[in-house]
Amino acid sequence: MAHSTLTSIPSILLGNGIGGTVAIAVTVFIIILTVSIYFNDRPYSGFLKIGRDESTWRAKQRWLSSAKSLMNEGLQKTNFPFQVIANCGPLIILPPATMDEIRNDDRMTFKAWLKQHFFTTYPGFQGFIPAVENDVFVNSVRIGLTQSLGQITEILSSETSITLEELFPFSTEWLKIAVDYTVDFFTAAYVLRLCPPVLRPLVHWFLPQTRRLRASIKAARRLIEPELAARRLAQEEDRKAGKPVEKHVDALQWVQSAAEAKGLHCDPVYGQLNYTLGAVHTTSVTFVNILYDLMAHPEYIELLREEISRVFQEHGKWDKTALTKLKLMDSFMKESARLTPVTMLPVNRVAEETVTLSDGTVIPKGATLGVPTLRSVDPSVYQDPLKFDGHRFYNLSQQPGGATKYQFVSTSNDSIIFGHGKHACPGRFFASNEIKIILVHLLTKYELKFPEGTTDRPKPMEMGADLMPNPEMKILIRSRVDGVVNHSF
Ligand code: HEM
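Above: the input record for the complex with protoporphyrin IX containing FE. Below: its predicted structure, written as tokens.
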């Protein structure tokens, strides 16, 4: 036996017969794999690397648990820029001062970042295709959604009211698809980023989350296609009858109109899923953080109720204009997002060519870069920056020239929770209205507080640069009996 084993090794290596060919293929694969794992995700040259000298795998995990302290370490050691091994591989962290250069520079794009870090070429991840391939999705939000706010705000308000009366139901099939797809999408992207790049084209077929993504797309298609067919039929009938073709006020229509305006086609299923990916987790995380801050600062609950009541008495309904008058609420929301943003790195780009910044920093082609929300807590920008002050932006907005500068939706180099510049979030106007409407209904109809003994808001959980509200926190909620202003919303 020993003899035959010894003689078989050289014969396998020399490629004798089918066994030999397979063995050579396996050996070559292992060599390529080892070399690729070693060379992929290597740090960029010319940038100080923060973090221990450890395997890429360990470094990626360390980023997931300690991104904030790694960035703080970088700040203490250097005056920027520096790099870390993030879960997506090497990541250059740029100083907030570079925002003016980054924000409108087409050589470093948000699209390339989405494409690279959300694996849009793998089946299941097509939900970001409309945002990556062209401007159809961005235009559908910027033009379709934002310009329809006047028409949809009152509808949104009555839908919120019904939803609350039915005690937070989670009934419709679409809602389930939207939430499941979003959760699976971001989890799957996290898992794949941890994987060495060379293995990803194989691994993505087998992850439970990516399997569910593919199933969700099929389920979404089953739901959306009959609706589209019915619309096409109705439009055909309108045309035959010589009537103007009915345009719907919803995301299916906005995506279609944005695509047609550019002579392009956008798969309506991906368009809808792109809306859920852009809107679901960002808005819910921001909203839950606001709720936690309200309960940690309950003195604002009465103040906000007074504002709600006053605006309703003046205005008589909850439309787009009425919402702009909720100035204290707007200030409270911005203060909450200033101290607890959805992510500590809201501005992300991938350089599509080598770029030399004005301070001489050379960003290599293909590099991933991010700008952190540091100015939000910079004492030279905000007085007593770590203190929660729900009136902070209200007071700033009263200063000359401050009216539009300090709104929840305003962006600047000092306030990048929605990004800033060319790619600043176009959905922020809708998100702001949506959050205000929910707060109006919740505060008017319910008492909310932390359980006995809890006074501080729970600290957010860090997942790399992303911040998640602690899901374990319990909130006591009951209908208000006294003092309810009898609005019909
Ligand atoms: C509170 C909720 C939200 C937050 C915190 C948020 C945050 C962001 C951030 C940080 C960016 C990147 C900006 C940059 O790189 O400069 C972004 C981009 C974007 N967001 Fe939002 N977002 C929110 C809600 C929404 C909603 C509701 C929609 C759509 C309905 C949306 C659609 C988009 C789109 C299309 C982009 C890409 C813009 C571009 O590439 O030019 N977002 N968002």
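Notes for the reader.
Residues 94-479 form a domain with the Cytochrome p450 fold (CATH 1.10.630.10).
The pocket of protoporphyrin IX containing FE is lined by residues 110, 131, 137-138, 141, 145, 275, 278-279, 282-283, 286, 342, 346-348, 417-420, 423-428, 430-431 (CB under 6 Å).
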